[in-house]
């Protein structure tokens, strides 16, 4: 089968590279599909004029499309380049290589893919990775997306054959946006179990219990709640990994605010910000922790709890999105109602005090990941979905097309 994966922004070409996040997810999907004998090509915007137009590695090809200005561009500014990107792909696919199916990634990649196939019978699958309407609901004024994103995502749901959700919560949101439940399939992200496993080095630590939180330093990651909860835990260390490199933390406004907040809360000595950690070093950080805390306001994908669980570390997290789907309460960790700081502190304190429970949760966590969340399982599910959609083929007409919607004035402003 010929598979085209479309992203609007550039990402790592190497599926096993030293980077994390959704872009690396796309590269890993491509590599696993190639291992299964499929012809796979990733299409992304070229934002570096010095980068090659074509890269062949890990069994698939990356084609960088010369659309838009050089250098990284905010997603809101890339919307106007969607028609040109789609036209480039449409012309490309009239030659010797035409995909049997196209898989759009992120909302902009999906718009480009839908624009490219709108006059063909090539079916299209879409993975959003996050939804603007969900981010707006959970983050409020901290929502970072452009105003046109939400109406365009709604239009995109009417232009695809199937949407791939990464959590049960995302399924509910997509159906509220107008998709039939039969047109949504849950396919969670996979975990590289060759990299993330219990055996190996751990980052050195002192005698105190260690709680590890991983993610960015934005207000939506819930670090404030963890800092407040420390007052109920006692003598434990909270390590926050994420944000800018360590040597630039002093210049980062949110890092300074978190440190000041910890001081004012009386736990400044217990909170340690280590900045961005290279992806290849993350297993050692997970193994160094007694428990990993996942307390974001919005979590469409359960990547962090899965990586921690693969390393044999129990997770305490808020019961929402990808965290709720991946963590089995009282089996691989504990789930707490979002925003319940007291419940979070009490749960963490009890887990840190119970060595036997953490040991049992850690072993169960490893088993869960290896049984249900390997990349082989994830891509095998995608492969079956591709085959099903290709057999069914695309409906003859889909109204309105994304191309039409994106040229209309946006009448739905994003407000908090």
UniProtKB/TrEMBL annotation:
<dbReference type="GO" id="GO:0016757">
    <property type="term" value="F:glycosyltransferase activity"/>
</dbReference>
<keyword id="KW-0328">Glycosyltransferase</keyword>
<dbReference type="Pfam" id="PF00534">
    <property type="entry name" value="Glycos_transf_1"/>
</dbReference>
<keyword id="KW-0808">Transferase</keyword>
<dbReference type="Pfam" id="PF13579">
    <property type="entry name" value="Glyco_trans_4_4"/>
</dbReference>
<feature type="domain" description="Glycosyltransferase subfamily 4-like N-terminal">
    <location>
        <begin position="20"/>
        <end position="190"/>
    </location>
</feature>
<dbReference type="InterPro" id="IPR050194">
    <property type="entry name" value="Glycosyltransferase_grp1"/>
</dbReference>
<dbReference type="InterPro" id="IPR001296">
    <property type="entry name" value="Glyco_trans_1"/>
</dbReference>
<protein>
    <submittedName>
        <fullName>Glycosyltransferase</fullName>
        <ecNumber>2.4.-.-</ecNumber>
    </submittedName>
</protein>
<feature type="domain" description="Glycosyl transferase family 1">
    <location>
        <begin position="206"/>
        <end position="365"/>
    </location>
</feature>
<dbReference type="InterPro" id="IPR028098">
    <property type="entry name" value="Glyco_trans_4-like_N"/>
</dbReference>
């Amino acid at each position: 089968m010929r598979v085209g994966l479309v992203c609007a922004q550039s990402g790592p070409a190497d599926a096993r590279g030293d980077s994390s996040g959704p872009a690396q997810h796309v590269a890993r999907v491509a590599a696993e599909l190639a291992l299964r004998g499929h012809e796979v090509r990733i299409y992304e915007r070229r934002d570096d004029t010095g980068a090659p137009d074509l890269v062949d590695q890990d069994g698939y090809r990356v084609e960088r499309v010369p659309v838009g200005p050089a250098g990284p561009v905010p997603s809101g500014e890339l919307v106007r380049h969607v028609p040109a990107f789609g036209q480039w792909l449409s012309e490309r696919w009239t030659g010797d290589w035409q995909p049997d199916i196209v898989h759009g990634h992120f909302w902009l990649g999906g718009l480009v893919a839908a624009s490219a196939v709108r006059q063909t019978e090539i079916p299209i699958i879409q993975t959003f990775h996050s939804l603007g309407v969900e981010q707006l609901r959970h983050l409020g004024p901290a929502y970072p997306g452009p105003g046109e994103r939400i109406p365009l995502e709604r239009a995109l749901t009417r232009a695809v054959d199937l949407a791939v959700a990464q959590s049960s919560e995302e399924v509910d949101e997509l159906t509220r946006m107008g998709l039939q439940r039969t047109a949504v399939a849950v396919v969670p992200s996979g975990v590289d179990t060759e990299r993330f496993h219990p055996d190996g080095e751990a980052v050195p630590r002192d005698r105190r219990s260690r709680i590890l939180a991983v993610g960015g330093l934005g207000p939506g990651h819930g670090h404030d709640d963890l800092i407040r909860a420390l007052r109920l835990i006692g003598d434990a260390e909270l390590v926050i990994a994420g944000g800018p490199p360590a040597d630039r933390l002093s210049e980062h406004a949110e890092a300074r605010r978190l440190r000041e907040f910890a001081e004012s809360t009386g736990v400044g000595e217990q909170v340690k910000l280590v900045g961005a950690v290279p992806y290849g070093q993350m297993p050692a950080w997970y193994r160094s922790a007694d428990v990993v805390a996942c307390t974001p306001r919005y979590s469409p994908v359960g990547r962090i709890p899965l990586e921690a669980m693969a390393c044999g570390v129990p997770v305490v997290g808020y019961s929402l999105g990808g965290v709720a789907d991946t963590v089995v309460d009282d089996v691989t960790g504990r789930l707490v109602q979002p925003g319940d700081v007291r419940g979070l502190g009490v749960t963490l304190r009890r887990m840190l005090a119970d060595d036997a429970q953490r040991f049992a949760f850690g072993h169960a966590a490893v088993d869960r990941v290896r049984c249900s969340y390997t990349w082989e399982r994830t891509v095998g599910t995608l492969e079956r979905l591709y085959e099903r959609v290709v057999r069914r083929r695309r409906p003859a007409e889909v109204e309105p097309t994304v191309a039409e919607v994106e040229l209309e004035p946006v009448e739905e402003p994003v407000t908090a």
